[in-house]
User: What shape does this take?
Amino acid sequence: MNAQTCLQILRDIKDVSFASVDEKGMPHNRIIDVMLVEDHKLYFCTARGKDFYNQITKNPHIAITGLNRDFQMVRLHGTVKQLKEQKVWINRIFAANPVMNDVYPGDSRYILEPFVVDNGQIEFFDLSKHPIQRQSFRLDQEVLQEHGFFITDSCIGCGTCQRNCPQQCIQAGTPFVIEQDHCLHCGLCYENCPVQAIVRRGE
Amino acid sequence: MNAQTCLQILRDIKDVSFASVDEKGMPHNRIIDVMLVEDHKLYFCTARGKDFYNQITKNPHIAITGLNRDFQMVRLHGTVKQLKEQKVWINRIFAANPVMNDVYPGDSRYILEPFVVDNGQIEFFDLSKHPIQRQSFRLDQEVLQEHGFFITDSCIGCGTCQRNCPQQCIQAGTPFVIEQDHCLHCGLCYENCPVQAIVRRGE
Assistant: This one.
């Protein structure tokens, strides 16, 4: 699994959800087609009359998510860029997705504007596995943001966290260690540690 | 179609996407299970250790969306309320969704907190129809927010909008009229009206 494979999962699902934030700071969410995926870049389009267009041209931060039939979930949080060569990109998108002609026949396609996401962090989850598997990737050269729970050297080795973990993904040791690739981030270990040896990182 | 039917579509899809906004104003999006739908209310849960829990307990505005295999899309924008009788609701949720025991066995289920959405606006789209069909509903007693494009009395009856409409959903008249139930909100009519007789309402 890598960043490109995750983008390809979103392309294969095709109808994925795109969240944006409006000028009042409110979240919006709708299904948008992933039109092309190439070289660590994801392309989509939307019409200039839509609230979605209005939102992302004012605030480019978006959060994309999709789940496929194998229960693999991909989340991508990044920013969108509007592409300047509008007709070139819309024509490429329609060539790759001919069903678009049913919705926007003839020249009406040029009410659509093309966008690319070439940055941000991806979270991959395989919910079909037990314990679940998770991995994080970057679409760009930025440092991966660490999220979740970590056991510090204050650990007294009592094993409370290991007994509580619903995914059984904590290994005994000095200190005990959470297997990050399998953690749900549920927080049960964190809440029940008798010496507060577990810290939360990230948001 | 009505509000309850739309909630039932989300329950039938089950794995739908929930967008929230964090303290920095950034959008987040992930797949969450719709656990129960009853009497114009939608129930879900999440673990106290998750960023999602952190976000919605600080900012209850969320946007939910899902698309079923018949290409019916539902969007729900509202606010969440945390339910006080935590164990009662989590037990009800697990009874209705026994597969949850695989992820949170035994008492680990009580790291989850129950939430309800009983307010907000729903947008329904049937993308399998041509022209597409859309309808709006409220989950509460608030006034439906009108969105989209409307032709005013400034219309000169030239028919430019009707010729441009990709969904052919503009009827001739004095003034011409956009069939709101079939409109994509693409904005082509609005951009091309020679006398700016078309207005945009909503956001």
Observations:
- Chain A has two domains: 3-138, 148-201.
